[in-house]
């Protein structure tokens, strides 16, 4: 018989001898809530409120049990979650830390989780005696860098109500050797100061720590020694709310409680610039590749700052309560924010508009976006789990339009294995709603008369029309095609440009008349007939649906010598003129016009009516081309100017 105790011990009893055989101490960090022995196997599974399941095997010489497998999570709600690494290979793991003062790693692609241990004042005493008084307070925030993780500790964490900062090694999956604390915080004046924020430099050599006293200190990660402070005597008059180091170790950006953003030079710890914002700063997140800094303010707004030009580039409004966390997408086009109003919003940085918003039943306290942008990880108040949300933009096209200011967010249930069927049905309904919304809006063919619309055809459908002779010569087979010995059976077709099946015997007998109507001698194709009837739009669409060879056959067939007429050629030029006037399908029409002039150059020179139409078309074509050329030249000039101006000012 096996029994579990309230303090986490297991006892094995011999019922025949009525005595205790062996004991396994500290099986769980809390009471043993459940025991189950597997029938016919020397295995046992135990559970506990510490959010762990353990499998034990009885194979010791004295009949005792040893740990075989372990699945566990946080025993207290996590407070911070971040995806580990900056590449897709390393970015499949989520690192979390929380109120139980432990750091854990969860995989998003496999059912693998790892516990890096608990933060303790004396690690040896905690492991040997399981002294719970040695456990440090909750980890409220951590930062890591993978550059030097194989050489020394690559992560650091701050604890609730403490000025002491601990180091961690994610590569060794354990707590580090250093505990970072300045000597000033041992004095009576600063004894109650608390570390509020930290960040590691891109090289992995230094950790920058901010305190509520206004100090900012720099420590070496390898030796744990203090390497300088920013500001004299303090960096901010109020407390330091957050800070971030850039990607090339040039400067550190810090945000103070007084609402000032300050740039500090890494080399000599001097202040470069101060930018005053409207309100006090609560959170910051730096996207190092783009140089965009998201700043959450106490008035529930978000401001995006360019750390290179040192100015505000976007202001985002929409939340109705305190912001808890912000994060950028890998390409820095989206900014995701969470708030105590139970909403998670997605902001489009180029337009500065909110393009997505959904509500959750429980407020989100921390969010993180995977390096590949396929997952969003969230942790919530009083919840032990880490919730993963998939990016729907990776599975189908999304029409992301700006949301109105009075948009009511839809409440979405948190991901759960127990509610899988409900979530699948809910997801299908959401996809159907999205499709319905997309079907309601039909984009016009021409958005504005001032814009020129392209056909968006592949370049092989219009760019190579003037080089078809060269392409045919290059692709000419070396040997003639060989006739197969026994050709398979195919349904007979009628020879011609259009694919049609041959009529049956019954259809032939019904039309077996020697009197032929006049229209049967018409040699124009459907394209030529539409041109003759003046249906320019349908004729142009028919031409765009064909390949290069089909386009050449249709345009060559306009010549009177091969079945066309002068009227049809003039109608073709009128179609081109209509398309240029409407400013649609610009590049395709240019290609068709060039092929027309190449194939019928001699006829145009000899025919005065067609020549006059070409001269009229020349003026229309030149006006359309000069308009798009001037717009492109102006755009390129402005881009070049802004680029050079930014470099000069920097």
UniProtKB/TrEMBL annotation:
The organism's place on the tree of life at top rank: Eukaryota
GO biological process: rRNA processing
Keywords: Repeat, WD repeat
InterPro entries: WD40/YVTN_repeat-like_dom_sf (IPR015943), WD40_repeat_CS (IPR019775), WD40_repeat_dom_sf (IPR036322), WD40_rpt (IPR001680), WDR36/Utp21_C (IPR007319)
Entry GO CC: Pwp2p-containing subcomplex of 90S preribosome; small-subunit processome
Domain WDR36/Utp21 C-terminal, residue spans: 445-643
Keyword Repeat: yes
UniProt repeat feature WD, residue ranges: 316-357
Keyword Hydrolase tagged: no
Official protein name in the record: WDR36/Utp21 C-terminal domain-containing protein
SUPFAM superfamilies given in the database record: WD40 repeat-like
């Amino acid at each position: 018989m096996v029994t579990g105790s309230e303090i986490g011990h297991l006892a094995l009893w011999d019922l025949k001898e009525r005595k205790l055989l062996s004991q396994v101490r500290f099986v769980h960090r809390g009471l043993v809530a459940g025991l189950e022995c597997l029938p016919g196997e020397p295995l046992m599974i135990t559970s506990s409120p510490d959010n762990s399941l353990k499998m034990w095997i009885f194979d010791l010489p004295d009949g005792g049990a040893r740990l075989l497998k372990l699945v566990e999570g946080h025993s207290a709600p996590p407070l911070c979650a971040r995806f580990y690494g900056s590449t897709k290979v390393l970015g499949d793991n989520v690192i979390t830390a929380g109120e139980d003062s432990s750091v854990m790693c969860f995989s998003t692609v496999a059912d693998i989780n790892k516990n890096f241990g608990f933060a303790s004042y004396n690690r040896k005493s905690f492991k040997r005696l399981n002294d719970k008084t040695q456990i440090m307070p909750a980890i409220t925030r951590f930062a890591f860098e993978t550059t030097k993780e194989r050489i020394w500790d690559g992560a650091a964490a701050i604890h609730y109500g403490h000025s002491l900062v601990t180091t961690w090694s994610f590569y060794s999956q354990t707590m580090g050797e250093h505990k970072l604390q300045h000597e000033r915080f041992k004095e009576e004046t600063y004894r109650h100061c608390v570390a509020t924020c930290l960040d590691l430099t891109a090289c992995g050599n230094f950790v920058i720590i901010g305190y509520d006293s206004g100090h900012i200190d720099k420590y070496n990660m390898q030796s744990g020694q203090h390497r300088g402070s920013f500001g004299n005597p303090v960096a901010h008059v109020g407390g330091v709310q957050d800070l971030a180091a850039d990607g090339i170790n040039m400067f550190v950006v810090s945000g103070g409680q007084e609402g000032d953003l300050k740039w500090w030079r890494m080399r000599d710890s001097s202040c470069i610039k101060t930018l005053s914002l409207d309100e006090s700063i609560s959170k910051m997140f730096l996207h190092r590749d783009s140089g965009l800094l998201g700043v959450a303010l106490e008035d529930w707004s978000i401001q995006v700052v360019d750390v290179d030009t040192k100015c505000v580039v976007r202001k985002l409004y929409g939340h109705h309560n305190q912001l808890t966390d912000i994060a950028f997408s890998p390409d820095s086009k989206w900014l995701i924010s969470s708030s105590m109003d139970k909403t998670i919003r997605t902001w489009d940085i180029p337009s500065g508009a909110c393009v997505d918003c959904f509500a959750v039943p429980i407020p989100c306290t921390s969010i993180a976006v995977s390096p590949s942008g396929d997952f969003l990880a969230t942790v919530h108040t009083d919840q032990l789990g880490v919730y993963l949300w998939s990016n729907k933009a990776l599975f189908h096209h999304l029409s992301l339009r700006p949301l109105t200011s009075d948009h009511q967010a839809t409440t979405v249930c948190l991901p759960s294995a127990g509610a899988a069927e409900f979530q699948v049905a809910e997801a299908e309904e959401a996809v159907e709603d999205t499709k319905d919304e997309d079907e309601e809006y039909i984009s016009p063919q021409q958005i504005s008369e001032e814009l020129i619309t392209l056909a968006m055809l592949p370049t092989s459908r219009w760019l190579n029309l003037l080089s078809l002779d060269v392409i045919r010569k290059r692709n000419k087979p070396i040997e003639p095609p060989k006739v197969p010995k026994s050709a398979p059976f195919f349904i007979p077709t009628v020879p011609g440009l259009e694919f049609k099946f041959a009529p049956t015997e019954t259809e032939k007998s019904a039309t077996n008349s020697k009197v032929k109507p006049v229209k049967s001698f018409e040699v124009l194709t459907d394209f030529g007939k539409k041109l003759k009837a003046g249906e320019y739009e349908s004729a142009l669409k028919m031409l765009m649906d064909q390949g290069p060879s089909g386009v050449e056959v249709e345009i060559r067939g306009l010549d009177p010598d091969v079945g066309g007429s002068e009227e049809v050629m003039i109608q073709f030029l009128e179609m081109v003129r209509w398309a240029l006037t409407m400013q649609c399908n610009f590049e395709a029409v240019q290609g068709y016009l060039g092929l027309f002039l190449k194939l019928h150059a001699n006829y145009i020179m000899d025919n005065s009516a067609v020549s006059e139409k070409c001269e009229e078309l020349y003026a229309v074509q030149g006006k359309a081309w000069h308009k798009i050329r001037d717009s492109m030249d102006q755009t390129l000039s402005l881009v070049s100017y802004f680029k050079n101006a930014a470099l000069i000012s920097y």
